[in-house]
Amino acid sequence: MFQINLRGGRGAIYQQLKDEVIRLTGMGVLGPDDQLPSVRSLARELGINPNTVAKAYSQLEQDGITYSVAGRGSFIRGDIVQLREVHRKTLAEFKETVSRAKSLGLTQEELTEAVDEVFSSAGAPPALEEGNGEKSDREKGEDN
Amino acid sequence: MFQINLRGGRGAIYQQLKDEVIRLTGMGVLGPDDQLPSVRSLARELGINPNTVAKAYSQLEQDGITYSVAGRGSFIRGDIVQLREVHRKTLAEFKETVSRAKSLGLTQEELTEAVDEVFSSAGAPPALEEGNGEKSDREKGEDN
DNA sequence: CTAAGTGTACTAGAAAGCTTAATACACTTA
DNA sequence: TAAGTGTATTAAGCTTTCTAGTACACTTAG
């Protein structure tokens, strides 16, 4: 279900896990109230420690992406609007990187072209609807 | 001479030092054979450990930005062409960041606009000449 | 030569972040 | 009741970064 580059990928494992969940949510693969793999099962599947998965799930909940219920599991939140906050943070980090690249002498054209290249190489084309009334009947209501 | 955001800035101190030297070199503030502050004097001035400065200088030499001579000091290399390698690495890291941002749902337009914003906010305007024969014998060390 | 300053090298420790490990608890569900 | 769930705790190991102290070979000014 998750494609993770354990060790060797970019950054910490728990961060990659968070990114993957957010990515699948943004792509629509994971929808409101969809259940994530359990902490223990995912840890077993990926060959990592349950604490690492728990850390990712904990931060995902803190970031408003998911909600967790002891005894039941972790689920995608109904109001995907929270992804806006993720976008905001990511964009802020991105600007830091741009600023550093600028200081090191990279030109605006070089960076813009790099952005074009990455987006031309095909990867995650679809998008998310802005005003959606489709909430389906998956609402269980034990949110909060 | 160097403006460093000790602790609190983006990343490790030695990395900030490297970036600063590369930045000043790209801006032309530091030219071929200009001498950098000594490991000990810069460490004292910044209130950090000499080893941290030495680490930065060591990597700058390894990256082809400077050359060091025991007993004399560290100097900017004459062939600034080496900055091309820095640009290459920086651009590669930048693409990684773009790729991650893309996965998290950021659009090409959002990233391009962010690049525009950073470059519009004024910071490092001038550029470096490509084919220069001017090596001059500028400032031989009245610095520090 | 001497003394001061230079880059360089080495060992050691502290601190922070990430991961693993082993339990334990309260909860939900079949 | 039993199994599975999220959550919490404590401990250890690992890596990176920074600090600290010491030492060595070199260059330069006297």
List keywords for this structure.
144 residues, homodimer, 5 helices, mainly alpha, DNA-binding
Describe the structure.
The structure is a homodimer of 144-residue chains. A two-stranded antiparallel sheet of chain A has the order 1-2. Chain A has helices at residues 13-27, 39-46, 50-62, 83-103, 108-120; strands spanning 66-69, 73-76. The first copy, chain A, has 144 residues and is mainly α. In chain A, helix 1 (13-27) crosses helix 3. The two termini of chain A are 26 Å apart. In chain A, a hairpin with a 3-residue loop joins strand 1 (66-69) and strand 2 (73-76). At the A-B interface, helix 1, helix 4 and helix 5 of A face helix 1, helix 4 and helix 5 of B. The structure holds a DNA duplex (30 and 30 nucleotides).
Largest sheet data of chain A: 2 strands, antiparallel
**What's the order of the H and E elements of chain A?**
HHHEEHH
Shape of chain A: elongated
> What's the Cα radius of gyration of chain A?
17 Å
User: How helical, in percent, are the residues of chain A?
Assistant: 40-55%
The tally of beta strands of chain A, per DSSP, is 2
* Greatest interface and its participating residue counts: A-B, 39 and 39 residues
Number of helices of chain A: 5
State the secondary-structure class of chain A.
mainly alpha
First-residue to last-residue Cα separation of chain A = 26 Å
| Assembly status | homodimer
Q: What topology, given as strand order, has the largest sheet of chain A? A: 1-2
